[in-house]
Design brief:
Elements (H helix, E strand, L loop, with lengths): L1 H25 L3 H7 L2 H29 L11 E5 L1 H9 L6 E4 L3 E4 L2 E3 L5 E4 L2 E4 L8 E3 L8 E3 L3 E4 L5 E4 L3 E3 L2 H11 L10 E4 L2 E6 L2 E3 L6 E4 L2 E6 L2 E3 L10 E4 L2 E6 L2 E3 L5 E3 L4 H7 L3 E7 L2 E2 L5 E3 L7 E7 L2 E2 L3 E8 L7 E12 L2 E8 L14 E12 L11 E6 L6 E10 L8 E3 L6
Parallel strand pairs: 1-3, 2-5, 3-6, 4-9, 5-10, 6-11, 9-12, 10-13, 11-14, 12-15, 13-16, 14-17, 15-18, 16-19, 17-20, 19-22, 20-23, 21-24, 22-25, 23-26, 24-27, 25-28, 26-28, 27-29, 28-30, 29-31, 30-32, 31-33
Antiparallel strand pairs: 7-8
Length: 439
């Protein structure tokens, strides 16, 4: 190949002139050779030697740069079948601070890509489609605030960055989730965990906006160990029976704004988390100051706090959101005896409800397994203010059950406040155990 030919030529260029000169002198007597060898011959031999080594060095450097794709700018092809992983990653890696990388219209098939440079904008005008083939996804260790295990690399990762924006202009990110859901069903296991669609990790001042996210294999947007992140104007969709396709998951992060999104998925539309069990308590990174405002939630499991709360969750404000449904429950707060941590200062204000079976569920025994934490989860300061039913379309809304607050003696629920809550029409009464107040 080209590399082999170049190296052989380099060696021959370096050695042959020297060898020829040495043969010429070897046929003569030593004394005659010394007498007749001129300074010009010696200079020529030295020049040829230096030229040869310099040429060899240049060839090796060029080959190394070529191996690193320094000269090989790949073309991003939106034909729906060409694989663009290398081209997209190369475009990102070669970008400079302040650059905007645009994915033009078309269907761009890719494996996982990673952004590790700050102050970049990725603008998606076409469609990015995840390859439905696990061999293209690296297997990573589980995050440090979670029990040991493995996970497939996320389709788009933003890691250790500041000032990154990913935005759309008619852009779509399609995770090809059906491949992964069928794989889990076929193998009977979710190990390694399926890929997330977006992973924002250890980053600051990141914005994700104006995109249509479709059929994520697992969680759609995972905001992890990050600060000052805004997720806005997204449309997120997955079938209502798709497993674990949570919409937006702020996890051990601070100052996250989730605004004006429309979410219809197979699991929680919003799930606020902070690590799990002993690893989460040891990592000790809380999730706090999260604002969830002016969103619309359709099919799914509503909005939730937990159940992974081991690092502590506080100051979470849901404001002026609409939970249309249809879904089983609108709001859920969940933990268990293995979690520890705390859930405090959570408010749901001006929340509109439509087609739900149940308004609220608080449980302290959610999928309880594992060794109990030394200190149970502390639950306090949960406020529901201005909750009401609305009618969507011509059909009358059905009766709703107020829900269940199932706390335990070891994990009581303190400081619950229900203010201006109107669930009409509803049937039955809220069932409460070990709670300071009930509706």
């Amino acid at each position: 190949d080209l590399a082999t030919v170049s190296v052989l030529y380099c060696i021959s260029t370096t050695l042959n002139p020297i060898t020829m000169l040495r043969r010429k002198h070897r046929v003569k007597a030593k004394a005659e050779a010394e007498r007749r060898t001129s300074g010009k011959d010696r200079s020529l031999e030295s020049a040829l030697r230096w030229f040869g080594w310099a040429f060899c060095f240049i060839v090796v450097v060029i080959l190394m740069l070529k191996a690193l794709d320094f000269f090989d700018e790949k073309t991003i092809v939106g034909d729906g079948h060409s694989i663009n992983t290398r081209a997209l990653q190369q475009r990102i890696d070669h970008a400079k601070a302040g650059d905007t990388i645009t994915i033009q219209k078309g269907k761009h098939v890719t494996g996982p890509i990673t952004i590790t440079k700050s102050h970049l904008t990725l603008r998606i005008e076409g469609t990015i489609v995840g390859i439905p083939d696990e061999t293209h996804y690296n297997i990573k260790p589980q995050f440090p605030s979670y029990p040991s295990g493995e996970r497939f690399q996320s389709l788009i990762t933003i890691a250790n960055c500041t000032g990154v924006t990913i935005e759309g202009s008619g852009g779509i990110v399609d995770g090809n989730g059906e491949y992964w859901w069928k794989r889990m069903e076929r193998l009977g296991t979710d190990q390694p965990n399926r890929p997330r669609l977006f992973e924002i990790k250890n980053s600051t001042a990141v914005t994700l906006r104006k995109l249509f996210l479709k059929d994520s294999p697992f969680w759609n947007v995972h905001v992890l160990y990050s600060d000052n992140v805004t997720v806005s104007n997204l449309v997120i969709h997955a079938p209502d029976d798709s497993p674990n396709t949570d919409g937006i998951v702020p996890d051990s992060s601070t100052n996250v704004k989730i605004q004006r999104n429309a979410i219809s998925v197979g699991d929680d539309a919003i799930a606020v988390k902070a690590g799990k069990d002993k690893p989460g308590r040891s990592f000790a990174k809380p999730c706090s100051n999260i604002k969830v405002e002016h969103n619309v939630f359709l099919s799914g499991h509503g909005v939730s706090i937990g159940s992974e709360v081991s690092g502590g969750i506080s100051d979470i404000n849901f404001l002026n959101n609409t939970i249309l449904g249809p879904m089983k429950r609108g709001i859920r707060i969940k933990t268990n005896s293995a979690r520890g941590g705390y859930i405090k200062n959570i408010s749901f204000k001006d929340t509109k409800l439509s087609e739900l079976e149940k308004f609220l569920e608080i449980t302290t025994s959610y999928h309880a397994k594992g060794a109990p934490a030394d200190t149970p989860t502390v639950i306090s300061g949960i406020t529901f203010d201005g909750v009401r039913r609305i009618k969507e379309g011509k059909a009358d809304i059905k009766e709703i059950h107020p829900g269940v607050v199932a706390c335990s003696e070891s994990i009581p629920c303190n400081g619950l406040l229900f203010k201006n809550v109107n669930l009409e029409p509803y049937s039955g009464a809220m069932k409460c155990t070990h709670a300071s107040e009930c509706l």
